[in-house]
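Memo to structure team: turn this sequence into structure tokens by end of day. - J.P.
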Amino acid sequence: MKMKKEQKIELVRGLSDELNKSSGVIIANYKGLSFIQMDAIRRDFKGNGNDCRVIKNTLLKKALNANDINDMDNALVEPTLCVIVKEDFAAAAKIAKKYAKDAAISKFFLIKGGYFDGMALDKAGVEKIADLPSREELLAKALGSMNAPITNFVSVLANIPRGLVNVLNALKQKKEKE
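Reply from structure team:
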């Protein structure tokens, strides 16, 4: 069913507002995916709080340009799946990379690019962000780094009495032999 001009304007306005509030966007080619595969991809993205939908390139281009995102116009060819990332861009990039590497889907699901932190990204840029450790991993590493000096200090303090006990045992054994 063909959309009326008013519906298109409203769709672009709503999409533009969503893009303005989002932390980024990932676009991919989905041509050739079955309904079941497409539904699984949508559920996976939406399960992480993102908005995943198929949008006509002309309407997406207008919404992107309304938010001063002009660097992605070249990527808007062929059918486009648009993922509007609400919070964690790296998590969404990991999902996109997972599907791009999946043997059954990789022929059809191709990452075209993305937009994050004021920069347009190509496929390689999205995949680099997907390779970054998660927030939880980074926090665990930082906590480990903060705890390391304390742990080492406690270990050194525990070695002092242990060393004294070892010296005393050696003296005791030496006196017993004499």
